[in-house]
Amino acid sequence: MAENFPNLVKETDIQVQEAQRVPNKMNPKRPTPRHTIIKMQKIQDKERILKVAREKQLVTYKGVPIRLSADFSKETLQARREWQEIFRVMKSKNLQLRLLYPAKLSFRIDGNIKSFPDKKKLKEFITTKLLLCEMMKGLFEEKDKIYEQTKWQ
Fold first, then answer.
1. What pLDDT score was predicted for residue 65?
2. Do residues 89 and 77 make contact, with C-beta atoms less than 8 angstroms apart?
3. Which terminus has fewer CB within 10 Å in the chain: N or C?
4. Residues 47 and 91 in one domain
5. pTM
């Protein structure tokens, strides 16, 4: 902590309630880091640490870069997963994308930042932009057909 957040450690008494390493699938061809879940005694400590980490941008542990992120609920994770396919396609076309909390897609187009809380709003917007329409061709139609087939069952 002191390595990355010296001022934060000095000004507050941060206490960890629980810490555990999560086993993950090992890939012998690629060294993959293991996740560590840390539960703080105070939510404010977690929020302060994450805020300072975002501002600093590069957090290290013993000189090795690490990434800090908040843990999401199952509902939030599911909502964010629903954007994965669209996110992957748009990212492959070099668009500057972000998933805002809880699950809102945001990207820059024509110098403006556009945000979409759901796929329906994105679909409406895409129909006005020829370039995006070409990029997303097939993504919405296939899902719409599946929805229509299962809607009445």
1. 82
2. no
3. C
4. no
5. 0.49
